[in-house]
Amino acid sequence: MTKTGGGFARLMNVERIGREPMTFDIRATEEECDALAAALDILGLSDVTASGSLVREGVNGQVAVSGRVMATAVQACVVTLDPVSQTIDEEFTVFYTFDPRDIVVEETEKVVGLDEPDPPQLITGGRIDLAEVIQEQIALALEPYPRRDDLPEDAAEQEMDLEQVKKEQGVHQPFANLRDLMSKK
User: Fold this and answer.
1) How far is residue 67's CA from residue 119's CA, in Å, rounded to a whole number?
2) Which of 63, 78, 120, 149 could covalently link to 97 via disulfide, CB atoms 3.0 to 4.6 Å apart?
3) What is the pLDDT of residues 99-158, one digit of tens each?
4) Residue 13: how many CA atoms within 13 Å on its side-chain side?
5) Is residue 75 within 8 Å of residue 104, measured between CB atoms?
6) Which residues lie closer than 8 Å to 58 by C-beta, 6 or more apart?
7) pLDDT reported for residue 153
8) Which residues, including other chains, have CB under 8 Å from residue 39's CB and lie 6 or more apart?
């Protein structure tokens, strides 16, 4: 995961988390939204809010960060490069661990299903940067191919004659006359 830029950081000291959850409520400033948009390589980001809690899991000592992130993202349309707005409203749960052995990937191949949680991330310095969690959740929620709603049907979806396409593209066919030559024998 890339680091957030522009001084946007929300560090939570998780060394002293007990049985009671720690809650958070974050509202990014305009400058922080601009820094997040630059880090995500999108045109703009506004109204970024996140709220939730950090809870120490009793069985394995891991820390679960659960919450909800909301934002309005603006990306470039993949066809026209015009701005396309998207509302993000995602719930998430991310696990962290103090034990480096919890994040070691085994030598064997492991398939992680969609229903299974991701492996935990390592807590460094006794702190979790919630800004990184927010950035990651926004990145996962972004439309991979943003497209304006008012665009006509894609040309690739329209039926076109293959020969017509070859003529328009000027495709060289070195063996086009081979059949005729073979039949003259």
Assistant:
1) 18
2) 120
3) 777 766 655 566 666 677 677 888 888 899 999 999 999 999 999 999 888 877 654 444
4) 2
5) no
6) 19
7) 62
8) 2, 3, 4, 5, 6, 135
